[in-house]
Amino acid sequence: MKKTVMIVDDQDELRESISTFLENEGYQTLNAHNGNEALRLIDENQNIDIILLDVMMPEKDGYVTLRELRIAKNRTPVIMLTAKTDEIDKLLGLEMGADDYITKPFSLREVVARMKAVLRRTSHEQADDEWIQQVDIKINLNTYEVYVHGARANLTPTEFKILTTLAEKPGRVYSRLQLMNIAVGEAFVNYERSIDTHVSNLRRKLSEFGSTAAIQTVYGIGYRFEVET
After folding, report:
1. Are β-strands 131-134 and 100-103 bridged in parallel, bridged antiparallel, or unpaired?
2. What is the distance between the alpha carbons of residues 153 and 160, in angstroms, rounded to a whole number?
3. pLDDT tens track, the chain, 229 positions
4. How far is residue 156's CA from residue 115's CA, in Å, rounded to a whole number?
5. Domain ranges of the chain
6. CATH code for the domain defined by 127-226
7. Residue 224 half-sphere exposure toward CB, CA atoms < 13 A
8. Could you give the CA distance from residue 170 to residue 165 in angstroms, rounded to a whole number?
9. Which of 15, 152, 181, 183 registers the highest number of CB atoms within 10 A of its CB?
10. Cα 166 from Cα 171, distance rounded (Å)
């Protein structure tokens, strides 16, 4: 079955170029020229597999559109498209729930490669993989929800991906670079030290709910997930 890609960009020529290329690559496409139109089309189409979302747009920009999607619990993977190159702008989009970030100008083949990587990383189609449970933590992979002692913990998308990765294989050590690659994509491997901040926030949130699980630091390498026995 063909994957459906929504392209949201106010530059008509660029949007049409991406759409034509993707259709030639075997994808179906939907097109919107701003955030308002995108949100309307998303409400009307429940089979969108991934969204390419421009940041700088009139009426409703990409950040606002993304925030409204995530508030509505829409977990469709999103790749942000932007001319901005500042690290803070990139991390802002990722913290708001974006799955990757492509800076203009870009090659259309790069777009396809990054789309495939995001779809592989975010796909949880097998029912047997719907839940991960470790002691007092339950993780729903389909709804992106985390419960500790039955209470829901509000995690950022990056925190969720880090926790899921570590909890799937307790005791395994992951380097900072590995975790950053898994959490936010290959384009951001140069920012792997920022994983420390995400892990610190994740530890605090789990502790606030009284979890006995621990994310341990492995000096000079990275982190691992441990549970008390």
Report:
1. unpaired
2. 10
3. 789 999 999 999 999 999 999 999 999 999 999 999 999 999 888 789 999 999 989 888 899 999 899 888 888 999 999 876 655 566 666 777 788 888 888 899 999 998 988 888 776 544 444 788 888 999 988 778 899 988 889 888 888 989 999 998 899 999 988 888 777 665 454 556 678 888 999 999 999 999 988 899 999 899 999 876 5
4. 21
5. 4-122, 127-226
6. 1.10.10.10
7. 11
8. 9
9. 183
10. 8
Which residues, listed in sequence order, are joined to residue 5 by a DSSP beta bridge?
Answer: 29, 50
Indicate the helix (H) or strand (E) that contains 16.
Answer: helix 12-24
Q: Which residues pair with 151 in a beta bridge?
A: 148
The answer regarding whether domain 4-122 maps to CATH 3.40.50.2300 reads yes
Question: Comparing C-alpha atoms, which of 157, 139, 179 is closest to residue 66?
Answer: 157
- In whole angstroms, what is the distance from residue 181 CA to residue 123 CA? 16
Question: In degrees rounded to 5, what are phi and psi of residue 63?
Answer: -65, -45
Closest alpha carbon to 10 in 42, 47, 49, 52: 52
Q: In what order do the strands lie in the sheet with 222-226?
A: 174-175, 222-226, 214-218
